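User: quick one, fold this
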Amino acid sequence: MYDLQGHGNHISIDEVQVLSTQWNNISLQTFQPFLEYVDDPTSNIIQVNVDFEEASFSGGGNLTFKGTLEPNASVSTRLFLGELLMDALPLHFAYSVKSEGDSQVGLSLEFASEINGKKKLLLASQGMNEFSSTFSEVIAPSQLTKLDMAPGWVIQEYRIEMSGYTLTQIHAICYRQQLENSVHTSAARSNNQDPAEYFAVLGHVRISTSNQNTEFPPSTSWIVEGQYVEWGGSQGSKTLGLKLSWKLKDGNKYLFSKYNIYVEKRSKQSLRALGTRLEGAPEYIGVAQVEAFYVSDFVVPSGTSSLKFIIQPCDVGGASQKLDDAPFFQLNVESQ
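Assistant:
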């Protein structure tokens, strides 16, 4: 639901930063949060900002929560307001969090039904038992995933069933983790009631009716072409312009929201002693929402023997195909 605003200072894909320069593409803006404080239970303020500087989980931005918070307090900030009708299928929630110390972030979901009235659920990984009276139900995650490629980020996944209800609001709940089932807990709480520094980052929120991974078609299922190839440049360096286009051989039975475009520069010197190829890392050059992409004035370093343009399909839930399995177009440079 939330990952970027159509501009930023970097772009992250699959938890890895692929671009570190400023960019602006309003067509990439996704459904944005409608921030609003709904309560202030303590005098300690948590500031909530859309941040473009902190390393992001997805896209070019995050929501950051920063301030001070007492041990037994929580602060709620509205993220989304609308009406989403639930059907008989289970609903899958996933969100990513990076935090410091005992800072934690949960999600509060508000539902309404003409027959059953209102219901308020809390999605939280741990340490929210003292606030359970505020909610109809506190739900623990079905899965917690720590990412090796993105240290500090944790993906929390939940499964709920709310057939006949309408989801009306989503709130972020800031709280501090409390020790559970310990004889020292009561003493620790009574001896330390001072506010503490709070900092957490919310990277993305995803809602889906399935948690099944998309089976992307293999690269052999695609027809990829390079058209209108133009070479330029002088004094040993070259520039390239071309149109990339692609389509599935058996038609459009898959639904893809966008395609990330990468290029891999290959050279004669990229041969290992054992005979395997040592290629440069794929370089992100843009994104397409249709099955075509234009490359203009692309600088080709001297010594480059070929270019491999990789088209990475992405599904509507944000998942993307592995680059090694994605379709590509190979262009010979040496003969130019």
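User: anything notable?
Assistant: The first helix runs from residue 185 to 191.
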